[in-house]
Amino acid sequence: MKAYMQAPDGTIIQTADPSLWSDSWTLLPNKKGAKAFRAYHIARLRETIKPEDKIYCLLRHRSRSGMVCDIAVKHTGPDGLSDITFSTSAALGWSMQNNGVRVNGCGMDMGFHLVYTLSRVLFPKGFGCIGEKCPSNDHSNGDRDHPPHSDERPHWHNDGGYALRHSWL
Ligand SMILES: [Zn+2]
User: Fold this and answer.
1) Distance, CA 166 to ligand 1 centroid (Å)?
2) Cα(4)–Cα(72) distance, rounded to whole angstroms?
3) How many Å lie between the centroid of ligand 1 and the Cα of residue 47?
4) In angstroms, what is the span from residue 164 Cα to ligand 1's centroid?
5) Which residues contact 30 (CB under 8 A, 6 or more apart)?
6) Would you write out the chain's pLDDT as a tens digit for each of its 169 residues?
7) What is the DSSP letter of 113?
8) Distance 157 CA to ligand 1 centre (A)
9) How far is C-alpha 165 from the chain's CA centre?
10) In this predicted structure, what is the pLDDT of residue 23?
11) β-sheet bridge partners, residue 72
């Protein structure tokens, strides 16, 4: 059973042994802790990931049935390529297996499914049109309009799932 602990600076971690941490850390009740842990990682990812960013997927393991796979996740930010596998698993509430996020599904591109779900979690209210290269599916569904979203000219896409692009490594 893992416990959730919070540091004075707001960092929230999951640990198998709360006694290893100093007295300045607070043990959170389980349900509240799980929620706070997820919210903490969503907020962390939101700091670096912007709409139109590309998320890279790396297949770590695929079950023989093909119904389950474990995918490592990377993002290129200002400091270069960073591994966001753990934060992604925490933000989605999906488990980590074989150094990847465990993804369940069949008959679909699991990398797309993972990034689409992450994108919806990070941009639950959708996102403003980016312009010419906007990844929103509204454009493939007939929205030929590409001027970027601005205060003077609102152009909002409601499905946040398409804010991020995905690519296999
Ligand atoms: Zn757009």
Assistant:
1) 17
2) 23
3) 21
4) 12
5) 3, 4
6) 789 999 999 999 999 999 999 999 999 999 999 999 999 999 999 999 999 999 999 999 999 988 999 999 999 977 789 999 999 999 999 999 999 999 998 678 999 999 999 999 999 999 999 999 999 999 999 988 888 998 888 899 999 999 999 999 9
7) H
8) 7
9) 12
10) 92
11) 58
Q: Tokens 């290893």 identify what position?
A: 20
What is the bridge-based pairing of β-strands 54-62 and 165-168? parallel
CA of 135 to the centre of ligand 1 (A): 7
Q: How far is the CA of 52 from the centre of ligand 1 (A)?
A: 10
Q: Note whether 105 and 113 are within 8 A (CB).
A: yes
Rounded distance between C-alpha atoms, residue 38 and residue 43, angstroms: 9
User: In the chain, what are the domain boundaries?
Assistant: 3-47, 50-125+160-168
Are 15 and 23 in contact, with CB atoms under 8 Å apart?
no
Q: Are 90 and 110 in contact (CB under 8 A)?
A: no
**Could you tell me the distance, in angstroms and rounded to a whole number, from the CA of residue 140 to the centre of ligand 1?**
10
Torsion of CA 152, 137, 135, 108, to 10 degrees: 160
Residue with tokens 């962390």: 44
* CA of residue 120 to ligand 1 center, whole Å: 16
From ligand 1's centre to the CA of 130, what distance in Å?
5
Question: 146 C-alpha vs ligand 1 centroid, how far in Å?
Answer: 6
